[in-house]
Amino acid sequence: MKKLLLVLLVTINTIGGYTQTSQIKGKVFGDYFYNLKHHIPASENINGFKIRRFYFTFENQLTDNIKTRFRLDVKHANFGEKEKLRPFIKHAYLEWNNLIPRHILYLGISDANAFDNSQNYWGYRSVEKIIMDINDIAPSADMGLSLKGDLNKIIHHWITVFNGTGYGSSEMDKYKKFGYSLWVTPIKGMILEGYIDYEKQNPKTGTYEPAADYFHSTGYRTVKGFFGYQNSGITLGCEIFSRTNFQSGATDSSGTSKTDVSKAGFSLFSHFTIIKSKLKAFARYDYFDPNTDNKVYVDPDINGHKDEETLIIAGLDVTVQNAFHIMPNIIITGYRNENIDNDITARITFSYNYKTEKI
């Protein structure tokens, strides 16, 4: 079977009269989890093994400057949902390097620029998504065009024109999402980044669900800032954002008139080396307010004001082999509403990478 696969890949790579370079690689992570405490009684004491992500990536270097990527993503359904593991497309793009000097053009379903840098500094996607991802502020990938590059050795930027629906949906209306990220790297290991995006929406179609609160919005805008620093022993990160969904809230519980909904949050994280190449520790604190104005209703229910939430993550990262990690960790979710108890989940997370030799 292995020989058959190699023959097939070599045949594909030599179509067109020249030899191309290809590679298969990916990442797998999951965990054993146990809900020690949960504000929903039925969810307390549940436990199980779960694959949270299985990436299968095929990359093909067509020429010195042109590369393609195809990535499948697989994950288990939530606890209690009887559903088979089904793959879905996460990446499918062509990457053209130096079409514009010092820039890369992406065409297809590719990474979005809202939190890519901060996620790289966080470095523990295997443990949890970054704050803007976990709270559906922006998708991690989308369909469209993007241009990423260096203005000089210190100043870098990334402009995107996407459908705005994320990688899991086709376009639903005539509007596009425009995003721009600009960051500077004044010294080795340090980054200062600013980001903004905007998309007009048709509230009748409800294109982008995270832009829906009481109503579907007429448009949304996100602004964020990120600071990160890392060296061989420690990484520090701070991300803060504000999101406005225009005309998606109500001024009263009956929904007689519309108003804007503002969301805000910040995240502080760090990880540091205890034993070089063997043991690290990581910690993170998130604060998220899905509705910063208590006079605005965001849900048709009579108690339609959403309250703030906090997230605390702490754990250890044990390197078993270079590509294999075991990470015992604990996650605590807190709620401002005094009637809701904290959620506490203990997990043993595993993560490993795989790849073939380039062929």
Class from helix and strand fractions: mainly beta
Work out the helix count: 3
The CATH architecture can be named as Beta Barrel
Helix percentage:
under 10%
Describe this structure in words.
- By secondary structure, this protein is mainly β.
- The chain has a single domain (2-355), classed as Porin.
- Helices cover 6% and strands 54% of the residues.
- The chain has a 16-stranded antiparallel β-barrel with strand order 1-2-3-4-5-6-7-8-9-10-11-12-13-14-15-16.
- A hairpin with a 5-residue loop joins strand 8 and strand 9 (190-200).
- The chain is globular.
- The two termini are 16 Å apart.
What distinguishing features does this structure have?
359 residues; mainly beta; 6% helix; Porin; 3 helices; 16-stranded antiparallel beta barrel
Summarize the entry for a quick read.
It contains three helices and 16 strands. With 359 residues, the protein is mainly β.
Q: Helix and strand layout, with pairings?
A:
Elements: H1 2-13, E1 21-37, E2 47-61, E3 66-74, E4 88-97, E5 103-111, H2 116-122, H3 131-134, E6 141-150, E7 155-162, E8 177-184, E9 190-200, E10 219-230, E11 234-250, E12 258-275, E13 279-289, E14 309-321, E15 324-335, E16 343-355
Antiparallel strand pairs: 1-2, 1-16, 2-3, 3-4, 4-5, 5-6, 6-7, 7-8, 8-9, 9-10, 10-11, 11-12, 12-13, 13-14, 14-15, 15-16
